[in-house]
Design a protein that fits this description.
Elements: E1 18-22, H1 27-38, E2 42-47, H2 50-59, E3 64-67, H3 73-84, E4 97-100, H4 116-142, E5 147-153, H5 164-188, E6 196-202, H6 209-218, H7 224-227, E7 231-233
Parallel strand pairs: 1-2, 1-4, 2-3, 4-5, 5-6, 6-7
Helix pairs in contact: 1-6, 3-4, 4-5
Bound molecules: NADP nicotinamide-adenine-dinucleotide phosphate.
Length: 237
């Protein structure tokens, strides 16, 4: 298991990087936006609700906000094109980091309670991961230090009947992210990858938002070869 907060000799560093936070208006999104901005990254915070994004912009000066329904692939590709047209410190034009935070727990009621409505909501959240990774894959590969991170759940390894929908949706996100990691590895093989996809794992995020933010910063303190395709558990205090 790599130590993402340590700085390895060839660590690329986060300052000047363009990092898009997909689903940025939760407490964890605020923490990541604040930490990345403080570390010198250019943060593009994306959500579907303008009011909540305005609150984020007010609490994290410097963060750029964009309203986008990440469930709409055409809207996501338009956002990717808009960002590619902007000047960046690292020069390749696209994003260097995609921190995907769209999730949302649904469940309860045993297996019988695993409703169609809940599944559709969870599937929609998974769809935002598919859309953003597909739209930004080339940018993450073009960066000399592309990073993708998602937050998965301990329920993937230990699913419960009352959370079967949720565990299945998070398992899909986990598999998708490892598939992205395989693509990152393949793109530079036999040389080591420059891009890395990682899966943070938590039981509950409450109280771990700051730790998540620090671990996100640490993704640029570790080489892609050490990170690509790994699960990184966040430790409850
Ligand atoms: N919370 C936990 O205890 C826990 C436990 C295990 C894993 N996780 C995972 O950790 C990640 C972060 O969780 P979280 O609770 O901080 O965030 P979250 O509330 O699940 O989602 C983050 C944000 O995504 C935005 N969003 C939803 N649909 C969107 C869409 N179509 N387009 C754009 N934005 C959209 C929402 O903001 P707007 O409404 O403003 O758009 C929401 O604030 C998720 O993947 C979650 O499954 C969380």
């Amino acid at each position: 298991m790599p130590e993402p907060v340590s700085t390895s000799p060839a660590a690329p560093g986060v300052a000047g990087r363009t990092v898009l936070i997909a689903g940025a208006t939760s407490a964890s999104g605020h923490a990541c936006a604040a930490a990345l901005t403080a570390a010198g990254a250019r943060v593009i915070a994306v959500g579907s609700n303008a009011e909540r994004l305005a609150e984020l912009a007010a609490s994290v000066p410097g963060a750029i906000t964009r309203v986008c329904d990440l469930g709409d692939f055409a809207a996501v590709t338009a956002l990717a094109e808009e960002i590619r047209g902007q000047a960046t410190v690292h020069g390749h034009g696209g994003i260097d980091g995609l921190i995907h935070l769209v999730g949302g727990w649904r469940g309860g009621g045993g297996l019988a309670g695993q409703s169609e409505e809940d599944w559709q909501a969870l599937d929609a959240a998974f769809g935002t991961l598919r859309n953003t990774t597909r739209a930004f894959n080339d940018d993450l590969l073009a960066s000399d230090a592309g990073r993708l991170a998602i937050v998965s759940s301990a329920s993937v390894a230990r699913p419960l009947a009352g959370g079967a929908n949720y565990a299945a949706a998070k398992a899909a996100a986990d598999a998708w992210t490892r598939a992205v990691a395989q693509g990152f590895a393949k793109a530079t093989a036999p040389e080591p990858p420059t891009a890395a996809a990682v899966i943070f794992v938590v039981k509950s995020l409450a109280g771990l938002e700051q730790q998540l933010a620090e671990r996100v910063i640490g993704l640029w303190g570790t080489t892609a070869a050490e990170l690509n395709g790994v699960h990184i558990p966040l430790d409850p205090a």
